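A student in our group prepared the protein record below, which I am reviewing. What it holds is a sequence and that sequence's fold in token form. My question to you is simply how this chain folds and whether the tokens agree. Do not assume that whoever made the record got everything right. I have pasted the whole thing underneath without changing anything:
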Amino acid sequence: MIPVILSWIGAAAATSSNCSMTHSAQTSEKQTTVKMTTNLGDITMVLYNDTPLHRDNFIKLVNEGYYDGQLFHRVIPQFMAQAGDPLSRIAEPGQLLGEGDPGYTIPAEISYPAHFHKRGAIAAARTADEINPERRSSGSQFYIVTGKVYNEQQLRARERQINREIEQQIADSLAQQSREALMQLRRARDFKGINALQDEIIAKAEAEAKAHQFAFPAEVREAYTTIGGVPHLDGEYTVFGEVTEGMEIVEQFSQAERDRYDRPVEDVRIIKMTVVE
């Protein structure tokens, strides 16, 4: 959890102008376009140039036909639709999917707030922090964000939650640094000293957290309150592209009837993916 919180501290200082400048610089460069043909329709996406490891890997897999014939094996309404498991090509109905990959992972290229989990964002799936503290991405599995629209009250609540986490993390760090002093006070049964040290830690944590208050940048806030997305995933997964056409197709199959594994009961299959330019 520590790396996520610390990355938000830096993001809190970002202004809306900085965020806009990053977005403008990104879109002014020629981006790679990929066309995905599914059994329900076509989806067009662009890949970001400032996530080159993910971009180049995705292009490589598309050119190899790696995704052709695969399923969207996990969909959750108002959240996301996930694909990229090679085992899904020949999966039996009701079979649990999501463990397949090309046998390698990709270093994280998390760049918040330049890229965030707005509706239409394409991000790399990965294993949990407990076994993957570096947040390395799956070599092939990705998801498309559908999400939902948030109001200002919900975003402010999310900001308060993040700031509480920041303060708690700082307090835990300060307590760890003072562990030996605290143990000495306990051995001496100096309860007054213990209380004074605890009060000092709390005061320092509050002061440091106040200096690093998190707030959603203006461009991010506007996106989440208009087109929607999934803000709680920001800072945890690499966002490396976005859908430019065909989100209605994604919305359609993300709301399909699902089994207990969140797999669509009727297969949603990628017929072919092609690099357009």
